[in-house]
Amino acid sequence: MKYLDEYRDPESAARISKEIRRITTKPHVIMEICGGQTHAIVKYGIDEFLPEQIELVHGPGCPVCVTPLEIIDKAIEIAAKRRIIFCSFGDMLRVSGSDKDLLSVKAEGGDVRIVYSPLDALGLAQKNPDCEVVFFAVGFETTAPANAMAVYQAKRQGVKNFSILVSHVLVPPAMEAILSSKNNRVKGFLAAGHVCTVMGYHEYGPIAEKYRVPVVVTGFEPLDILRGIEMCVKQLEEGRFEVENQYTRSVKEEGNITAQDIIKKVFKAIPRKWRGIGEIPQSGLGLSDEYKDFDAELKFGVAHYTKEESSVCISGLILQGVKKPHECPAFGKECRPEKPLGATMVSSEGACAAYYRYRKK
Fold this sequence. Notes:
Blueprint: H1 10-23, E1 28-32, H2 35-44, E2 54-58, H3 63-66, H4 69-79, E3 84-88, H5 102-107, E4 111-114, H6 118-127, E5 132-139, H7 144-157, E6 162-169, H8 171-179, E7 188-192, H9 193-199, H10 204-211, E8 215-218, H11 222-238, E9 243-245, H12 257-266, E10 267-274, E11 278-287, H13 296-299, H14 315-319, H15 343-346, H16 351-359
Parallel strand pairs: 1-2, 1-7, 3-4, 3-5, 5-6, 7-8, 8-9
Antiparallel strand pairs: 6-11, 10-11
Helix pairs in contact: 1-11, 2-16, 6-7, 7-12
């Protein structure tokens, strides 16, 4: 495919791999933040191109995986109510709450719909004034601008029967939580190119300096990831701790200012619980006071919900880069894609799902 095959060229991959081997003289643990990058690494065997001194670990970069159990339960309770049209991207429908998932609610008669944009959900609210329409706003900074725009337009147009259930999380606080943990093994990061396309990468400079870790903004194709690893290893070998941008065809240092402005207008930073990790200060987005009328948690009285996670699932350790999926005793046994224990097996971008699909043996 034009503009894609060139980023999957085996000969170029071999050349980059050879250069990584040449410059590597000591062990390094590198974490990729994005679930899409994790999937590419496992699918294409990118880690098998590397010298044995380089270990790749998988971070909390899958938004489905880090959505806490109680948020799923809140979604299920709201979706099961009468005269509710509950809208979501498709990847959230199979994520299990305490007892069931959104697909089960749909099977039981709930009006649960897959949409491709939060603005589609806003359109449904306008067409169905006798129903409440709720959009499940999940994701990192990448999806926040569109969700913010939907709320902004709803207020501007006076649409009263539209709200969003917010579970947005932010990358930099999660990186700091990992680096400050007593279990931390990470020496360098591959930052997610799509997040940086929106937010830029100026936020990573203080992290690189404070924790003495290189951060390389990287794309999602095999050559992107290999080149990002090469840049990260070179910094580590030279004792440099800087932010570099491999993904120059998409990312600028300042990011998308217009997208950032709508996020700042509609949302505010709040503490957020991450599935498997716990609460991280100022690591999430919630609706600002000006837009609180569009907060589904407040509108439907579910803001107080809390829920403990499965003690069998080790997804938290996987998301922190402490363990790999195959090190979980339930992997491929009690926990499989058709009956997952944790969200890292549910999501197509989850590390456990990627290992099960490509490396089950």
